[in-house]
């Protein structure tokens, strides 16, 4: 009996929610798994992150072009399956080389999904209707992430390999479900007679690059993505060490030890981000849905910078945690607004490729920004490294405000 296709919005929420739940399940205890089960040294842990970023840099644009030439739906299905393989490999063979290979395979799988999923839903429902869907998907992602974090904490008590293995099996089931229910009607692939494989792929990539250089919004988003990558990698790596180094974890409600408290911190941070997204969508829906939300995005960058700086300099645990949660919440509110604006600026034929180019700028920033800020933290203290990240991110607010001026100039020229 054939299974009916879902409406595009429902299929997109299924994909985003399922992916978020399974990623949270795999990632919540991944570092603990790599240290206690795989036995990785700190240097080897850094190598794992670098391996994934290298895979992102190598494959982001080619896989985006494949999505533009053949099928966004097919690209999403391929990426979901590859991620399943990477998690099953890491959980099934907990040794250095399988783990390293698994991290690179995971990066490859992500590149098939990056850009393709957003381009798919934009084609299915239209550029003018996609921003509310992105915002609602963010809320679904945060809710499912909470569930995944809780499940990881529960089954991780039995065996630290279980979250990886269960997440891998879950991605297999998610891919099978998407095969059955995910439609694709808005995308028009390049006709077979016109495909010259690598030559056409190269043409698509060049078109995306030309668009990124030529169009003000796309070019600015590219720079913003680079700045976010340069600053975020070090913050995401250093915040846990900063808490452990600077503060004494409390003993409250029977919770003791870093593992328990950092699970609580992750859950609270996710709930704060979810609440911020819901409140922003309810109280500032018009601004979130604006065609050119430059001022809003600049303000959210300022909040992120303030959160990073506050976390670095505050001397008490809970105010410092509130600061980093504010940073994360501002980023969560910002991402779907920025994504919708970028999708409106890009033609369908090169949409996935252009989104992949922007995503690759973020990966490049993460690969390039983490080690120098880590060196600063090692030489002058973690707080100094965090402050450096805030300084790097700050110009992104100016880039968004520059787009506001650009928009006004365009309006005067038209009139």
UniProtKB/TrEMBL annotation:
GO terms for molecular function: transmembrane transporter activity. It is a multi-pass membrane protein. SUPFAM superfamilies: MFS general substrate transporter. Keywords: Membrane, Transmembrane, Transmembrane helix. The chain crosses the membrane at residues 12-33, 45-69, 76-97, 133-156, 162-182, 259-283, 295-318, 380-403. Residues 1-408 form the Major facilitator superfamily (MFS) profile domain. It comes from the Bacteria. The keyword Zinc-finger does not apply. PROSITE patterns: MFS. Pfam families: MFS_1. GO terms for cellular component: plasma membrane. Gene3D superfamilies: MFS general substrate transporter like domains. It is found in: Cell membrane. InterPro entries: MFS, MFS_DHA3_Transporter, MFS_dom, MFS_trans_sf. Its main location: membrane. This is Major facilitator superfamily (MFS) profile domain-containing protein.
